[in-house]
Amino acid sequence: MSGGRAIELDRTRSVGEIVRAALDLYRSYPLLFLILAAAVMVPYELVVLALTGRGPLGHAHEGFVTLVLLSVLSFSLIGPTILASFMALTMAVLYFDLLAREKTGPQTRDRDEYQHVRT
Questions:
Q1: Are residues 47 and 103 in contact, defined by beta-carbon separation less than 8 angstroms?
Q2: Whole-Å CA distances, 65 to 45, 61, 71, 103
Q3: What pLDDT, in 10s, does the model give residues 43-67?
Q4: Is the dihedral of CA 23, 24, 27, 32 positive or negative?
Q5: How far from 21 is each of 4, 83, 101, CA to CA, in Å?
Q6: 1 domain residue, yes or no
Q7: Which domain holds residue 37?
Q8: pTM for the full model?
Q9: Residues 14-41: pLDDT tens digits?
């Protein structure tokens, strides 16, 4: 990864290590994850505003059915969509990190072998 430490993909991890690696990834690319979450949340909030007149921080006088429907929609659609987007972005970052390491890997190995033979 650019700017962060490389993530080791060739060993098993504990749950704590997985969470720590995910947080490191989020810290390495905060703007990317923020834009991705906004790409899901902003259109949803605009539709809610247009249909109910309720903004993201305000509470309009809405009926019980509307409140339940919006809660179910948010819980069943918006949350999983953001989670799936974050997972896809994480996989893309790891994939490009792996590609970058494969490009630099043989050069580093050749240099190390050259230094070993030379000494």
A1: no
A2: 18, 12, 10, 56
A3: 888 888 887 777 766 666 667 887 7
A4: negative
A5: 11, 16, 17
A6: no
A7: 15-118
A8: 0.58
A9: 888 888 888 888 888 889 889 988 998 8
